[in-house]
Amino acid sequence: MKKPVVFDKYHACIEAELRASLDASSLPLYDMLRYHLGWLDVHGRPETRHRGKLLRSTLCLSANKACGGDPGDAVPAAAAVELVHNFSLIHDDVQDGSEYRRHQPAVWKVWGVAQAITAGDTMYALAHLEIPRLSCRGVAGSRVLASAEALGQACRSLCEGQYLDVLYERRSRVTMAEYMRMVSGKTGALMGAAARIGALVATEDQTLVECLASFGEHLGIAYQVLDDMIGIWEEVGRTGKSRYEDILKRKKTLPVIYGLTQAAAPASTELAAVYSKDEMSLEDAERVAELLERAGARDHASRVVEQHRKLAVQELAAAPGPAGVDELLEIVDFVLDSNLAAGSRQ
User: Fold this and answer.
1) Which CATH superfamily is domain 5-340 in?
2) Distance in angstroms (rounded) separating the CA atoms of residues 63 and 66
3) What is the separation of C-alpha 51 from the centre of its chain, rounded to a whole number of angstroms?
């Protein structure tokens, strides 16, 4: 599926704000951030091949427009959301030991764990410096404060979700309810915050704000489940990460939880035996993927994606917004229809 025009529409203003944020200092630290964002290669030369989609920041501006706002007013908020997302990716790669991100070595593989942690922390700090800049765009102080609180709450939920993600690696059994709590924090919270903050900048209608926030949360959950599927069944060349990485790290993704809790014997028994091994080989991971496929885990995950897509769209239908939601619907279709085919992770 071709990338919707909405991504190109907002790309320039989002990137300009991000660049201005990083240009505040000449320390080489900021080149690490530019590298992660895909602006520079490892040697500091300009680069364009390994950039992210700017999904969350685009979502923020589209939500603002849907609420009758001027997206230009919300650009600092969009940049803040994007910086938080990238802070989480840098730290996530350190925690998981993931060597690649967006088809290039992760920050920690180039500069080491200690400096990668600092790079992530810097992204986090820059994000929170962006929100006050909303006042320079004429946004009322009460809305700036509400946006800052929404971003802070999302960061807390994101950290809680990441904590559970790592915790569950060591647990032999995780329920679907526990999984949903984890992904609601890890992915749903920031997507929800992106839409919420975009709406907050545009309107004081709390019903509309809550509809947009719930829309983003459901989209985030669907996106994470789809990412779980990609991590198991997509080719390494498409994802930019090592194949079966999630399985080898014993990540309790939705397909894995389904297989461990719903698959019939002897498949469930074999899955449990593999996951209890001290060391899991690539052959073990391949066998896990095969067993999950046979158990119907991929089909179940697809149904969950569709369930949360429908819930997201229902929230838009219920939103009493003054403007149309066409851009948001285009984002939903692009993210959920093309992401698996493209194999683009996060």
Assistant:
1) Farnesyl Diphosphate Synthase (1.10.600.10)
2) 5
3) 14
CB distance 315 to 206 below 8 Å: no
Q: What does the alpha-carbon distance between residue 269 and residue 249 come to, in Å, rounded to a whole number? A: 19
Cα 68 to Cα 133: distance, rounded to the nearest angstrom = 20
Residue with tokens 């073990």: 284
Element (H, E) at 300: helix 297-318
Q: At 115, is the pLDDT very low, low, confident or very high (cuts 50, 70, 90)?
A: very high
Residue 341 CA to residue 335 CA, distance in Å, equals 10
Domains in the chain: boundaries: 5-340
Token couple for 55: 């999904």
Distance, CA of 74 to CA of 135 (rounded, Å): 10
Residue 157 confidence (pLDDT) above 70: yes
Token pair listed for 1: 């599926």
The residues, ordered by sequence, that sit 6+ positions from 176 with a Cβ below 8 Å of its Cβ are 254, 257, 258, 261
